[in-house]
Structures are given as C-alpha cells and as structure tokens.
Amino acid sequence: MSLTPLQPEGWPTPRGYSNGMMGEGRILCVGGQVGWDSEGRFPEGFVAQTRQALENIVAVLRAGGAGPEHVARLTWYVLDIAEYRACLKELGAVYREVMGKNFPAMALVQVAGLVEPEARLEIEATAIV
Asked: Which GO terms describe its molecular function (predicted)?
C-alpha cells in the first residue's frame, strides 16, 4: 500500500504537508490525541505536548497494524496559533522524528478551548492501510 501526494498543476509546492493524498485500502481513524502520556500527565510546553500527541497517534496506528507512513490526513486544533508559529522549526524536527518524512494533507485550526484543561493542542489522524 502506498499513498500518492496530489499536487495540482501550477500550484506552489507545499512545505511540510500535501494538498491531497490518494491511497487504496482500509481506513483507520485516530480520534483526537492530546499531549498526555499513558498516565494522563502533560509535559510542559507546546513542542513537548506536540511530540507526545504524535507519539500517541503512532501508538493507535500500531494497534491497528499501521504506522506513520499510512497517515493520509492530520487535523490540528491549537489554542494559540501564535504559539504554534513561534516554534515552527522545533515542531518540524519533532514531527520528522516521530512521523518520518510522510507529509499528509493537513489542516490547522485555532480553537477557543479543548476538553482537557492542560492541553495546548489536539491532533486527529486518518490513515489508509
């Protein structure tokens, strides 16, 4: 199984994401993951919570017989878009460490709040296995 990035002709090449992804197989939907560990503890800081949220996504993927390379879409919900933008370089490094060089279709939305009061972000994933 492989995913194919979709790039409309004449569009600028995206950095760190794809405009669309196409694949064939079973769909694995990962519910929104926040940056807490298996005991419900949150690390301090946006980057640390992002790492943990992505690691949580990978754990759910593994439970379904998949890996980061199967992710076709990510949706990020952040409390503060300025906080996200302020650490893009660090986020890129963390993303590549956990997810590899798979850059799925992504959306990022600033929200007014999340269910878990300590959470700085929540990320959903859709994979094609």
From this structure: deaminase activity
